[in-house]
Amino acid sequence: MRIIELDASKWKTVADFYDALLAAVQAPKGHGKSPDALVDSMIWGGMNAVEPPYTVQISSLSTAPKEVRDHVQLVSDVLVDGRIYRKRHKGDDIEASIVIAPVDDQVAKIRNAVDAVRYEGPDPNVRAGIDKAMRKFKLGPYR
User: Fold this and answer.
1) Does the reported pTM lie above 0.85?
2) Domain contains 127
3) Has residue 105 been placed in a domain?
4) pLDDT, tens digit, for every residue of 109-137?
5) Residue 131, in any domain of the structure
6) Do residues 100 and 106 touch, judged by C-beta distance below 8 A?
7) Which of 18, 28, 49, 106 suits a disulfide with 33, CB 3.0-4.6 Å?
């Protein structure tokens, strides 16, 4: 698996984190700077020049301001949630993670959490939303 190393020693803002990460995965210009935007491009794919599998390993995060540290942890957690959602509703896993050095067994813990998830089929909330839109616009039943 590819390891993408980022050094957080000079990060002062959350924007610095996004700038470094988006450059590392060669995200397109105008890529969003939010956890949801990262789930879209890193887990659902097709946007960035660098595609999974990969692990983003961040060093020196302890020197960054608390707001930055907390946001990086949030993004890491949201990516794990995105992987779990994808596996539960699409049946496959995309190995894209953010881990904070020292790495220890973070990658294995993430993989184990995703591996424990079983495929349940498409998200029923998405299906209900599609059906509602189809009725609203009188487009007939969704198949």
Assistant:
1) no
2) yes
3) yes
4) 887 888 888 888 888 777 777 777 777 77
5) yes
6) yes
7) 18
